TrEMBL record:
<feature type="transmembrane region" description="Helical">
    <location>
        <begin position="415"/>
        <end position="435"/>
    </location>
</feature>
<feature type="transmembrane region" description="Helical">
    <location>
        <begin position="12"/>
        <end position="34"/>
    </location>
</feature>
<feature type="transmembrane region" description="Helical">
    <location>
        <begin position="827"/>
        <end position="848"/>
    </location>
</feature>
<feature type="transmembrane region" description="Helical">
    <location>
        <begin position="80"/>
        <end position="99"/>
    </location>
</feature>
<feature type="transmembrane region" description="Helical">
    <location>
        <begin position="392"/>
        <end position="409"/>
    </location>
</feature>
<dbReference type="InterPro" id="IPR018580">
    <property type="entry name" value="Uncharacterised_YfhO"/>
</dbReference>
<feature type="transmembrane region" description="Helical">
    <location>
        <begin position="238"/>
        <end position="262"/>
    </location>
</feature>
<keyword id="KW-1133">Transmembrane helix</keyword>
<feature type="transmembrane region" description="Helical">
    <location>
        <begin position="329"/>
        <end position="351"/>
    </location>
</feature>
<protein>
    <submittedName>
        <fullName>YfhO family protein</fullName>
    </submittedName>
</protein>
<feature type="transmembrane region" description="Helical">
    <location>
        <begin position="363"/>
        <end position="380"/>
    </location>
</feature>
<keyword id="KW-0812">Transmembrane</keyword>
<keyword id="KW-0472">Membrane</keyword>
<feature type="transmembrane region" description="Helical">
    <location>
        <begin position="106"/>
        <end position="127"/>
    </location>
</feature>
<dbReference type="Pfam" id="PF09586">
    <property type="entry name" value="YfhO"/>
</dbReference>
<feature type="transmembrane region" description="Helical">
    <location>
        <begin position="139"/>
        <end position="156"/>
    </location>
</feature>
<feature type="transmembrane region" description="Helical">
    <location>
        <begin position="163"/>
        <end position="182"/>
    </location>
</feature>
Length: 863
């Protein structure tokens, strides 16, 4: 009998995963998702960021890039936080079997695997949490598990593939907490929590926050059933807290270095002030309205669909005759609390992990879906007499009516989906009641249950289908074509030039018609040194420096680098620029490939390391990017001739104050001068720049640059128009400057004449050798300052300063100077030590418990 039960448990768990995976593969084939067609679940940030990260990680796996340090991340930096947030899931090891042209197939397949595993872990939880016969409850275990695997959250957040690890780990964590309360085996909780944090610390953080709620819920339920005491509560609390702390310590090898890396940006700070805002974010009834096919979540309105009938099971148990009123109150509290976390700002802040969230507002809604499904299992099991059947039917009727009524009060969903959801509730409710209470033979009852199960599967699959329509896009073939062209472009540059340089570009794979883009991780994707980056763990020093150069900070993650500011690029060692249009001063060396960009050589690019005179000059503080560059050049070269000089202009503001025409007196010699402009704004609005009637870029908005390049055809004048729908520009602070290429060439010659004798630059290791005959020289290196670098000069700690509060300046001495920069991930060694000691301690404790158990068993036998 025990063996039969065990086989039944394994069968239900396995079947839940197999059915979930089969449904997804069928939907992928029908919808033409990879590998069956040109569509994919890679949308939004998945398309903007994650494809590039996966390509980068594939290089890491085959030894061509590094997690410790990469020059492909903005100006260079550690990728430990990028790895732990985006890439540390064990599923990503499957990348080794996919080429870069097959990343969409990899992505969709891993989504299907994670969702299937989520169904299996929920089944594992439900079967082991309840002391009920599996065979009698197999159908509800199976269906709720599939509902968990294919719930609204999982499909809607499939593009944020890294968060799905938290979904399949949650049931495993909560089962161990249930075991703590019930005094069952729980020793594996620290290992499960530690693994969850390693797989993705962000979603694991959500799991840990919810685990506290679950502990209180389970103990309250246990107290009702077993009459627990305050002493029991204190003991259980200590066990729970200590095990959760041990779980964090298990993950220390990755988690502690991640915290250290996040401290370099505002993303590493927590916003506790929001806890004081007691306001509400939306209206509770919207959660009912959104419980329909195809519904999507937005701030103040959450969608929690996980099966039409499951919500009826969950709500009906609150009204069942004969169920302990204390339990019904507790279940009501869990359901109510599961909604409150979306609508009350303090709880929203807590479950957002004390971070300001600008998108994907309900990243944690799967925990509420888990609660609904948990109570729905109980609701199905307790549906065991006709009085409760009447309550169940009434609940179904009331909920269906509420869906329709609320739509006509405030329509926020598609009406046909409202009626279809109500119809599905009615059909499934009828089948359940007939199957459980009609007087039919066993064969007929089994047919009814099969029909109910089939309708449930169609129900959950239909919702997934609706969401896939919304959360998928086509364009795999375009990606592959672009990828081929970009790989050829980078390969062409690398094969023709073995020097050290950076590459920049004015367009990326995803460029809107407005001239803007958020794809700034191609340096990582195609493994070249870059000046661009878009991650959740940026280095704010680098972003501030780029901002002062004219590449503006955008949000908390990136700088906008979709133009080429030649003075800034040259200083940073940008030798090649990829662009679909000509830029004054650059030399085209190759026509466009499949990526639509020509290769341009920057003849003024500085070496990545060169010496300069150590002067007392202190650059003036200015927010003008052109004057700031003038100051940097003056500091490095001690010359008085400016790189940038102002261009005369005349502004004619429109009568309504919205927009202006700007007449520029362009320099005479287009062969020696490049022209740039910047129009400071006070706040974002719908704005655009036109030059001589030609659209250049959207402006003063999300993703827009500040500095823009102005083509110079040696005209005496140039007409520029700024169109906007608001009075948002500072017309008195307009900036137009010409870059003197002759002066830039002079600076470049000086820098190249003072380049180091030998220089080797690898990810995480830089060596340089310089022979100097002076005592007042310093070495400039366009490598960003980072406390992870260990810098030595002739074997001793070097004396270092910074240029622009960002790039290294190293004091050198008369004679031979051998400089070594070695990068180490901060807190990595101590993190590994803590993890090893914690795991070792857990194993020792397990062995000791096993021995004590055996010794007690032996004593009983001898007696």
């Amino acid at each position: 009998m025990i063996l039969s039960q065990r086989k039944s448990k394994i069968g239900v768990i396995t079947l839940s995963g197999m059915i979930t995976f089969t449904i997804l593969i069928i939907l992928f084939a029908i919808k033409g998702l990879a590998p069956f067609g040109d569509r994919s679940l890679v949308v939004m940030d998945g398309d903007i960021q994650y494809l590039d990260f996966f390509s980068y990680y594939k290089d890491v796996l085959i030894g061509n890039n590094s997690i410790g340090y990469s020059f492909g991340k903005t100006l260079g930096g550690s990728n430990i936080a990028v790895f732990s947030y985006y890439l540390s899931s064990p599923f990503n090891l499957l990348l080794i079997f996919f080429g870069n042209a097959q990343l969409h197939t990899f992505f969709d397949l891993v989504v299907a695997l994670k969702l299937s595993l989520s169904a299996m872990t929920f089944a594992f939880f439900a079967i082991n949490r309840f002391d009920w016969e599996v065979n009698d409850n197999s159908i509800i275990y199976l269906l709720t598990s599939i509902g968990y695997g294919l719930c609204q959250y999982n499909i809607a957040q499939s593009s944020n593939i890294m968060w799905l690890d938290g979904v399949y780990m949650l049931p495993l964590i909560l089962l161990q907490i249930s075991n703590i309360v019930a005094h069952k085996k729980f020793w594996s909780l620290p290992l499960i929590v530690g693994s969850a944090i390693i797989f993705n610390w962000y979603s694991a953080g959500i799991d840990c926050v919810f685990s506290a709620v679950w502990f209180l819920f389970e103990f309250a339920l246990h107290s009702i059933e077993q009459k627990a005491t305050i002493k029991n509560f204190i003991q259980s609390t200590l066990i729970y807290v200590s095990n959760m702390i041990l779980g964090v310590l298990v993950s220390a090898a990755l988690f502690i270095p991640t915290i250290g890396a996040l401290k370099k940006s505002t993303r590493g700070s927590l916003h506790f002030g929001s806890l004081m805002d007691l306001s509400f974010l939306g209206e509770f009834p919207s959660a009912i309205q959104k419980y329909t096919y195809g519904a999507t979540s937005e701030l103040g309105s959450v969608a929690l669909f996980c099966g039409s009938i499951t919500i009826i099971f969950a709500m009906a148990v609150l009204f069942y005759h004969g169920v302990d009123i204390r339990k019904r109150i507790l279940f009501s509290g869990l359901l109510g609390g599961s909604l409150l976390i979306f609508y009350w700002n303090p709880l929203y802040t807590v479950f957002s992990l004390f971070q300001w969230v600008s998108s994907y507002h309900y990243r944690y809604s799967y925990v509420s879906i888990f609660s609904i499904l948990f109570i729905s299992v109980i609701g199905y099991h307790e549906l065991n007499d006709e009085k409760r059947a009447h309550r169940f039917f009434s609940t179904a009727l009331i909920f269906s009516s509420a869906l329709i009524f609320l739509y006509y009060c405030k329509p926020i969903n598609d009406l046909k989906y409202v009626y279809l959801t109500a119809l599905s509730i009615a059909l499934q409710s009828a089948l359940v009641l007939i199957a459980r209470f009609s007087k039919v033979n066993a064969f007929s009852r089994n047919i009814l249950f099969i029909a109910f199960g089939g309708l449930f599967l169609f129900d959950i699959a239909f919702n997934a289908n609706c969401l896939i329509n919304y959360y998928s896009i086509d364009g795999i073939s375009r990606y592959q074509s672009y990828r081929e062209g970009q790989e050829n472009t980078i390969s062409t540059i690398n094969s023709a030039d073995d020097s050290l340089y950076r590459i920049s570009q004015t367009t990326t794979r995803n460029m809107g018609d407005n001239g803007l883009t958020a794809n700034y991780n191609e340096g990582l994707s195609y493994n070249y040194a870059s000046i661009s980056g878009y991650t959740s763990s940026p280095d704010d020093n680098q972003r501030e420096f780029l901002n002062r150069l004219g590449y503006p900070i955008n949000g908390e993650n990136m700088c906008i680098t979709n133009t080429s500011i030649l003075g800034a690029d040259s200083l940073l060692g940008v030798k090649y620029i990829l662009s679909p249009y000509d830029i004054e001063g650059l030399v085209k060396i190759r026509e466009p490939d499949n990526n639509g960009k020509s290769i341009y050589l920057n003849p003024y690019a500085f070496p990545l390391a060169f010496t300069y005179k150590d002067t007392e000059y202190t650059p003036k503080n200015t927010t003008n990017p052109f004057e700031y560059q003038n100051e940097l050049y003056r500091q490095l070269f001690g010359l008085t001739e400016n790189l940038y000089t102002p261009v005369k202009y005349n502004v004619r503001v429109n009568d309504d104050g919205y927009g202006a025409q700007i007449q520029l007196d362009m320099p005479d010699d287009s062969s020696t001068l490049a022209v740039y402009g910047s129009v400071p704004w006070e706040y974002g609005a719908n704005s655009a720049i036109y030059i001589n009637g030609e659209f250049i870029t959207d402006y003063a908005c999300w993703l827009s640059p500040t500095v823009f390049y102005i083509p110079n055809d040696a005209n005496q004048s140039c007409e520029m128009e700024v169109k906007t729908d608001a009075d948002n520009f500072n017309w008195d602070m307009v900036q137009f400057y010409s870059l003197n290429l002759n002066v830039l060439s002079q600076y470049a010659k000086i820098a190249n004449s003072q380049r180091v004798d030998t220089l080797s630059v690898e990810n995480g290791l830089v060596t340089a050798s310089i022979s100097s005959t002076q005592d007042d020289e310093r070495l400039f290196m366009s490598i960003p300052v980072d406390d992870g670098w260990n810098i030595t000069l002739n074997g001793k700690k070097a004396e270092v300063e910074s240029i622009g509060d960002c790039l290294y300046s190293i004091k050198i001495t008369n004679g031979t100077n051998n400089i070594v920069l070695k990068y180490h991930i901060r807190y990595l060694k101590i993190g590994i030590l803590i993890s090893c000691m914690t795991v070792f301690g857990i194993i020792v404790m397990k062995i000791m418990r096993f021995k004590r158990k055996n010794s007690r068993s032996g004593e009983k036998k001898s007696i």
